[in-house]
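A quick aside before the break. I want you to see a complete sequence-to-structure record at least once, exactly as it would be stored in a machine-readable document. Don't worry about memorizing anything.
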Amino acid sequence: MADVQTQNALIEAYALARHVRMSPQKARLVMDLIRGQKAQDALQTLKYTPKRAAKHIEKVLRSAIANAERKADDAGAPLDVDQLFVAQCFVNEGPRWKRLRPAPMGRAFRYQKRTAHLWVGVAEHHVAAAERVAANVAEAEAQKGVRGTARRVRKALTGKQAPPKKGKK
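That is the input. The structure line, written in tokens, reads:
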């Protein structure tokens, strides 16, 4: 019963890319395209989006999907990758690189090169999670009778009771 309860929770995973050399404002435009989509649909959207940020976000999304698969394997739960969707995704501002550009009459103009932190989280759809839990419960019920089957068959064939177990008196 304990392992059925641990598999009750939705499988969620995330991936993070820090210090991506791109303006956060430009990356947010692409993140808004994939928020809430199924993972496979989001990958297709990113593949055909003609923005430079799409390549970086696609890489992070693939990493999040791989993390979800790894998390499911570690938990011993089956995971259907087609049931994953982009649960959360956002862009935070990273540190700015301050640079100087020569200006007329010996002066200097200061400009900033912005960086971004890309965060993508995927989760299993709640319907798929409920189906997975139902399948696990059904399998546990099916296995329940299998454990003593050999003993029962031996008992039926010999017509005797099984010998008493050795142990403490």
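Two observations worth writing down. The first strand starts at residue 12 and ends at 20. Confidence is low (pLDDT under 50) at residues 1-7. We'll return to this after the break.
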